[in-house]
Amino acid sequence: MSLIAKLLARELWWAMLWLMRRPWMKRLQRASLRLLGEKRRARARDSMRRQNAFARKFGLPLLVFTINLLLASMIITLSYFALIHLSESGALSVPGASP
pTM of this prediction? Predict the structure, then answer.
């Protein structure tokens, strides 16, 4: 499951990085800084820089972990529904036992 999660995470991570490197996205980021007052602009720029550094360092491993959780949840849910379906259809009952 981890291999599947790594492949999905890498594709998703590539798409997010591609999107963040588009010129219109960079213009939006600069425009959001211009909305702030002059006093808060430098602090907001530093905050954005720290967030980007954090994302570069922990983003992909965090995405892999999250996709692993999603896949595990899907497997558990599908197993539960399969067992419920088999139980309701009588496939899990003991043959010859009275109901």
Answer: 0.75
